[in-house]
UniProtKB/TrEMBL annotation:
Span of domain Amidohydrolase: 51-539
Organism: Anaerovorax odorimutans
SUPFAM superfamilies in alphabetical order: Composite domain of metallo-dependent hydrolases, Metallo-dependent hydrolases
Top-level taxon in the UniProt lineage: Bacteria
Descriptive protein name: Amidohydrolase
InterPro entries the record matches: Amidohydro_3, Metal-dep_hydrolase_composite, Metal_Hydrolase, YtcJ-like
A family per Pfam: Amidohydro_3
Length: 541
């Protein structure tokens, strides 16, 4: 006789548009075998069945973080973790305190300072030299697209006034009047020239953090993660960590990944080959690698996003890594290899490359290739209209959708024209939501992101400024879909996860309240009662 688990007397929102609500779900092992009303579940109600009375609580498909970096997070969070709201003086005080508390460290690393606390020339090495001259110091900004390095770090990496920038204007070192590196390191290829020469990480600490972060994810209702990559110069460490966590069973989510980023068009072929090789080991419903991830520009905060007009501070212009022609060629290579594609595109010029890529891929007949525009921050209206036509997934992060007057000086009018999710959805795009953990800044909890995607202002602050345009907020249902079925689609797994339907895996989150019935500004307060992944409880309050 089969052992069934019967979840009943709940507000079960299935995210299946053909049957949105149920009050009873039955599972057998790790699969769903019944969804409907209580009367219809009688056939499963035997002496061996285990009955869970939901007592009116809300059950949803397990949340999926559709854009995160769990392996990278375990590395970069192993040092100082800055608060996005710290001033420059507070950052320096925290660095000084950390150095004093860890005198035996050979290096110092951290993540998360707010890029806007500096002017357009970025942070200066002298500020760090005053704290520590003898050991390398390297701190990533909140978006991880720029960094702050001291003189010892440049010295040990061999970076001097004669060292050429890897990609002038996009991946570069800010310079002082004599041409020496000034302390500001912009984008991944520049960062790689330092981080590939100096070891900032401890393997055991990284693995423990990877497991601990997974436990935290479970407490947030997360049952799946779309890992959007690692720095290419840490590929060996990426697989070592992933192999270890897969072997010891400490990762409590489904994992779909992409290995390392493409930050140079010349490495596309080798990166595709690496992914195909990794699929020999990672190609099932628990661990799979199937994305080609391209970093096509930087971030607004680092003044490295490719936008169609000069930055107002200094008139600088940034070009994307791949123009439309190169993006189209790259997309066709990936589609031919059977891979899905995820292109980081913050600025409108970078987003045009995503559209060009998708157009080429669709016109070549690759309809099932999943193409995602990562972040979708600033997109021209005429390009947003093409997201539906070419089936481009619009990824974004809800906790970034808040009014931030501090960015006015960086962006000018553009600061009032970002994250137009309503327009993208209206154009037919699927919105896929993620945290971009570890650069989530205000939390990776899906409930926070759902709320802010709807309200477009900081959670827990009723009087906080709203992000313009005010009419670009989504509905709660759309935000839920963004964390469930749309992310499952992005991961090419919508047939097995993302909604509560017969035959799919038993991945659920149970909430204390129905978030479709409360004031959206209170969604972040709702308690996660239980998380179930693959039929097994991974968290219970």
């Amino acid at each position: 006789m089969s052992t069934y688990k019967i979840y009943t007397n709940g507000n079960i929102y299935t995210v299946n548009r053909d049957c949105e609500w149920a009050d009873t779900v039955v599972t057998e092992g790790n699969k769903i075998v019944y969804v409907g009303d209580k009367a219809g579940a009688e056939a499963f109600w035997n002496d061996e069945a285990v009955v869970y009375d939901l007592k009116g609580k809300m059950m949803l498909p397990g949340f999926i973080d559709g854009h995160c970096h769990p392996v990278m997070a375990a590395h970069v969070l192993s040092g100082i973790v800055f608060d996005i709201d710290w001033t420059l003086e507070e950052c320096l005080a925290q660095i000084k305190g950390y150095v004093e508390e860890h005198p035996d460290n050979k290096t110092y690393f951290g993540l998360g300072y707010a890029e806007w606390i500096f002017d357009e020339k970025g942070p200066k090495k002298e500020l760090l030299d005053e704290i520590c001259m003898e050991k390398p110091m390297f701190f990533l900004g909140s978006g991880a697209h720029e960094a702050w390095c001291n003189s010892k770090g440049f010295e040990e990496a061999g970076i001097t006034r004669d060292t050429p920038d890897p990609l002038p204007g996009l991946h570069y070192f800010s310079r002082d009047a004599e041409g020496n590196p000034a302390g500001h390191v912009v984008e991944g290829r520049s960062q790689a020239m330092i981080m590939s020469k100096i070891n900032f990480f401890d393997e055991e600490k990284v693995l423990n953090l990877l497991a601990a972060n997974s436990v935290d994810y479970a407490a947030m209702g997360v049952t799946g993660t779309a890992d959007m990559g690692m720095y290419s110069y840490l590929e060996k460490q990426y697989f070592e960590a992933l192999d270890a966590i897969k072997a010891d069973g400490r990762y409590l989510q489904r994992f779909a990944g992409c290995t390392c980023h493409v930050e140079d068009p010349e490495v596309v072929d080798s990166r595709i080959a690496s992914i195909l090789e990794a699929q020999k080991k990672y190609n099932d419903d628990r661990f799979r690698i199937n994305f080609l991830k391209i970093i096509n520009d930087g971030t607004m905060e680092s003044r490295s996003a490719a936008i169609s007009e000069p930055y107002p501070e200094d008139g600088s212009v940034v070009k994307p890594l791949m123009d439309e022609e190169v993006a189209a060629e790259t997309g066709l290579k990936a589609a031919k290899a059977g891979l899905d594609i995820n292109m980081h595109a913050i600025g409108d010029v970078a987003a045009k490359s995503v559209v060009a890529m998708a157009k080429a891929v669709r016109e070549a007949g690759y309809e099932d290739c999943r193409i995602t525009c990562s972040h979708s921050q600033y997109i021209m209206p005429e390009d947003a209209e093409l997201f539906g036509k070419y089936n481009i997934i619009a990824n974004s992060t809800g906790v970034w959708m808040y009014g931030n007057p501090l960015m006015d000086k960086v962006l000018g009018h553009i600061n009032d024209e970002t994250f137009r999710m309503r327009s993208l959805i209206s154009a037919g795009a699927r919105m896929a939501l993620g945290s971009d953990f570890p650069v989530d800044e205000y939390g990776r909890e899906p409930l926070k992101s759902i709320e802010m995607c709807v309200t477009r202002k900081m959670y827990g602050q009723p009087d906080a400024p709203m992000l313009k345009p005010y009419d670009e907020g989504t509905t709660v249902k759309e935000a839920i879909e963004g964390f469930t079925i749309n992310n499952a689609y992005q991961m090419h797994m919508e047939d097995v996860i993302g909604s509560i339907e017969v035959g799919k895996y038993a991945d659920f989150v149970i909430l204390e309240e129905n978030i479709l019935e409360i004031d959206p500004e209170n969604i972040h307060k709702v308690k996660v009662c239980e998380t179930i992944m693959d039929g097994v409880t991974t968290y219970k309050a």
